[in-house]
Amino acid sequence: MDERFTTKKASHNYNTRKRDLPSLPYIMKQTWTDSLFIHYPVNQQVLQKYVPDVLPIDTYDGMGWISVVPYLTSSMKLRGFPSIPGARQFPGYNVRTYVIVNGRPGIYFFSLTAANLIASTAARFFFRLPYYYLEIYMDNHNELVNFHSKSIKNSGAQLICNYKPISKPNPAAKGSLDEWLVERYCLFTITKKGVPLRCNILHRSWLLQDVEVEIHKNTILSALNISPATNEVIMHFSKRADVSIWPLVPAIYS
């Protein structure tokens, strides 16, 4: 089944975000390219069933959101080291929702996939994230991105789509839902004992473009047994983000 959508237009103070960082050096740099954001509205109560209670769901006008984000990691480099051999360029996608902890908005990941065994294993170990290695095909011809993932074993989650930007890049309007969805600069996870942890990231504000999308198969939400609250779908494209990543720190006291 094919679906076609078009989207809207994120801004945040870069220096303010710098002041919010923990007093530790970053540990990794990555570059993300050809990112597609597919945002679905989901009732807050539904989402909270799947998210630890210590990570309250964040809402916009009372509504929670879940997003599927395919993208290409086009570089990965540990601080003080050259690019990681075998992990320089690989596609992946993540499935995320939005939480707020100790007054700080961030992201909670249901799952992340990467077509690279080294990267997925390291992220699972060092960042306590539900990362999976998965065969994924992705290419870009004349700005048309083709993305084809295999299904995740035991869940059937699969994404097959192609997409193309159709406008000039702009930051999202201040205070808009678009800004709320993409301008998030930390992720949250928990320890085995349920203690919340935070990982900060830093990059320039997302430059977003309207996007035309054909979805040939998307079973990601159904694999989670989550249904959107409405038929409203918001999509964004962003060509590139150069990202610095910090180590995990306690979420509440830092």
Give a description of the structure:
This protein is 13% helix and 44% strand. It is mainly beta and 254 residues long. It has one domain (4-250): Acetoacetate decarboxylase-like, CATH 2.40.400.10. Strands 2, 3, 4, 5, 6, 10, 11, 13 and 14 form a nine-stranded mixed sheet that branches. A five-stranded antiparallel sheet has the order 1-12-9-8-7. The chain is globular. The model is unreliable at 1-12 (pLDDT under 50).
CATH domain class? Mainly Beta
Largest sheet: 9 strands, mixed
User: How much is the average pLDDT?
Assistant: 90
Q: Strand portion, in percent?
A: 35-45%
Number of domains: 1
Query: Which regions have little confidence, pLDDT < 50, spanning 5+ residues?
Result: 1-12
The CATH architecture assignment turns out to be: Beta Barrel
With helices defined by DSSP (H or I, 4 residues minimum), what is the helix count?
Answer: 5
The beta-strand count equals 14
Helix/strand/pairing category: mainly beta
Please give the share of residues in helix: 10-25%
CA-atom Rg in angstroms: 17 Å
CATH superfamily: Acetoacetate decarboxylase-like
